[in-house]
Known about the structure:
It comes from Anhinga anhinga (Anhinga). This protein is mainly beta. It folds into three domains: 10-97, Immunoglobulins (Immunoglobulin-like), CATH 2.60.40; 105-202, Sandwich (Immunoglobulin-like), CATH 2.60.40.10; 211-235. 14% of the residues lie in helices and 40% in strands. It has two helices and 15 strands. Strands 1-2-6-5 form a four-stranded antiparallel beta sheet, with no helix packed on it. A hairpin with a 5-residue loop joins strand 5 and strand 6.
Amino acid sequence: MAGEHVQEFACFTDYDTELVCHWKVPAQMNCSKEYLLYYRKELLVMPNRVCVPENGKDSLRCTCTIFPDYFVSGLTYILALQFNGTDMWNYSVTPALVVKPRAPKNLAIEKAGNGNFNLSWEESYSPPSMLSGQPVIYEVKYWRKQHPTEVSVKAINYQAKSFEITASSLRRGYDYIASVRCNYTEYPAYWSEWSEEVEFHYDYQVTAEDILQMAVPISCILIMAVSVICYFCFTK
């Protein structure tokens, strides 16, 4: 049956330039030879347009990229998937309900005067994009380069394009990597991918607190040593 060739059909959009649909296929299948994806706007009597799918990076998916003329919240597409010239089924998708935003860009990090690290980034949308200026939340994650499984994730539920990584949450002498992703609260279906990473190093800087922490035990040892020496001097 032709239907056996399609699993996990799903679509998502950056809500700016493209609508991407993909589905799982058996290994070695040539997507552009076996499938065609027809699409049209709902409620408009227009001829179907066609999208020729390509094999995904892992070769186990077919991917079709549609470039709509515009995006509005009420827009719905009727999709029809063909396998070897045979209609398989119709599917409707409303782009506003499957928004997967582009990741934040231009991630940068610099050390602040207080010893913390300031992470900053930019939004990937600008006017006249539909998402430009929309409420957006972020997640920041950072980890020691040598220990990628020990990840700290911080949610930023307010309008900001920066985050202060406190020195107290880091361990001295290690390289760290940080990344950020976003989600638009009016279009919450998907988080973006994680952004490009930035790397920074938390070096050994001796602070006043360190000096105090070292001074107390050293003072105690010195006092004890002097006491012992004095004791032996007096007993002799």
